[in-house]
Each structure stands twice: as structure tokens, then as C-alpha cells.
Recover the amino acids of this structure.
């Protein structure tokens, strides 16, 4: 009886097929099932508070007078701890006006402390030559213990 020898080509062929399949998958032959973007319609019912009723309440004057000092914004602290509030004039307002706190002119930016459940007013002194109807723009930022709030691009109108 003679012995037959097995061909050793079968394992080599299987290895070659496996390499081709792996390379094909690596080159994008099959997708991963993941996605890079998506759009989903979901309803939302998140209530939005007005500036005056938010945790950082902002009662912004509807207008301020030229050639006088007027109330610009009253800041109310509805948080449980003291906050530091910065009001900063923007754009042309830095040339046309100065902020005033407790009767003292403080320039284009000021930071005031506001105790919990308290409020502070920041006034503005507007130059005499500012055109009627000009927008006076400003930003408000507040910070405290684990608190950070920004209310940028606020404005009121200058009247003469």
C-alpha cells in the first residue's frame, strides 16, 4: 500500500485568501456602520426666561440720555451666593460714554459685587454730541462659586 502525501498548498491558499479579505476590509471594502453626522427631529419644551427674570436678572433701560447720567442696567442676583458682575461698553460706546457706579465715573468697564438675592445698578454718562437714536452697546458677564454667565450684545438707545 502506498502512502499518499498531502499537498501543502492548501494552508498557503487559505492564508492568501485571508490576507486579501483583511486588506479589502481595511481599504473600505465594508463600512463600519458608524456615521459622521446625523439629523434627528425631537420636540423641546425648555422655558426661556426674559433678561429680567433669569438667574442673572438684567433690567436694561429702554433709553439713556445724551449729556447726562442715566441708569443703564440693574443687575439682580437670583443665585444662592454672591457673584461678581462685569459690565463693559462695546464699539462706539467706548468713545461716547463712561460707566458710573455709585456716583463715581469708572470708565468703559466695571466689576461690582452683588450679594445673593440683591441687585446693583450701573449707570452711564453719555457725551453731549452723540446723535439721537445711536445704539449704546455693552456686555455683561457674571461669575461666582461654580457660576459663569455671559450676556453679550445688549444695547439701549441714546436720546437727546
Amino acid at each position: 500500500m502506498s502512502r499518499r502525501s498531502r499537498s501543502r498548498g492548501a494552508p498557503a491558499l487559505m492564508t492568501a485568501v485571508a490576507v486579501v479579505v483583511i486588506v479589502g476590509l481595511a481599504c473600505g471594502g465594508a463600512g463600519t456602520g458608524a456615521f459622521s453626522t446625523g439629523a434627528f427631529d425631537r420636540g423641546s419644551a425648555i422655558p426661556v426666561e426674559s433678561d429680567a427674570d433669569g438667574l442673572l436678572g438684567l433690567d436694561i433701560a429702554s433709553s439713556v440720555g445724551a449729556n447726562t447720567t442715566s441708569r443703564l442696567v440693574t443687575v439682580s442676583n437670583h443665585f444662592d451666593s454672591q457673584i461678581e458682575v462685569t459690565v463693559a461698553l462695546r464699539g462706539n460706546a467706548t468713545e461716547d460714554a463712561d460707566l458710573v457706579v455709585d456716583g463715581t465715573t469708572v470708565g468703559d468697564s466695571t466689576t461690582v459685587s452683588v450679594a445673593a438675592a440683591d441687585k446693583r445698578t450701573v449707570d452711564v454718562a453719555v457725551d453731549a454730541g452723540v446723535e439721537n437714536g445711536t445704539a449704546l452697546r455693552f456686555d455683561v458677564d457674571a461669575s461666582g462659586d461654580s457660576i459663569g454667565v455671559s450676556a453679550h450684545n445688549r444695547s439701549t438707545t441714546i436720546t437727546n
Residues 30-40 have pLDDT under 50 and may be disordered.
